[in-house]
Amino acid sequence: MPVFKAPFNGYSVKFSPFYESRLAVATAQNFGILGNGKIHVLELSPGPPGVTESVSFDTADAVYDVSWSESHDSVLVAAVGDGSVKIYDTSLPPPSNPIRSFQEHAREVHSVDYNPTRRDSFLTASWDDTVKLWAMDRPASIRTFKEHAYCVYQAVWNPKHGDVFASASGDCTLRIWDVREPGSTMIIPGHDFEILSCDWNKYDDCVLATSSVDKTIKVWDVRSYRAPLAVLNGHGYAVRKVKFSPHRRSLIASCSYDMSVCLWDYMVEDAVVGRYDHHTEFAVGIDMSVLVEGLMASTGWDELVYVWQQGMDPRAS
User: Fold this and answer.
1) Which sequence spans correspond to the domains of the chain?
2) Measuring CA to CA, which residue among 50, 16, 34, 36 is closest to residue 314?
3) What pTM did the predictor assign?
4) At the top level of CATH, which class does the domain 3-309 belong to?
């Protein structure tokens, strides 16, 4: 399956919601500690080399995450290490980009998520302990959500309710928010160590997963969250990212500092249904295509982006 070699360390990979052959990759120089960043837009093709870069955008600081617009097929939003949020139009040449840049966060922006139901707004999560709500047509953020006591690593919209989102933080809590309410509506003390990622089940809007420095993934039901529905053990180090399948209710993908990507079925006893050891450095970015069932992508600090069909070896040509 296709492999793309980036000049910098991979941080995030996202399939386009409009084109099944398109994906975006966020990268950072020197492991994101100091240096530049780069966003790559890749196109998959049936023949060799299997993946080609259609356009790339240079940034003065690390890019930690990207999210495609749900309303404009060529637009993506980037979370940047200098605290900025930048919007790119991939149909325009690099000198014409970014088309917008917002500078509000006081520290690194670690995640960005476009609203899949309203399709007019997006969230950013930052190491300044806040989450911000934005709209494309507004000159500044609409609202700042400040309750977490430490870095917010990810904020994700509920797939069915356009006003509800979840946030995962280094303060060891998962919080549920409704933008119509003044504060968070639920606080789940999910792990004893930092929570690095969260995602909603695409078929049950009350179920979500968290991943942590404690090496586990936990699945929660917000209707009864005193104990998790499932605890998934199998990674050897911190679980950096967790993602629910857009096609199968109980399927979860994860990637870890143990350099592996895992697939889990949280409803069965032997939950690990796939393990991929193709990365040679920390695996930090994972995605599953909405448009092509079973198509996966991952990226890591080995500067590689792999795209493969579930059940196949990512390294196979």
Assistant:
1) 3-309
2) 50
3) 0.97
4) mainly beta
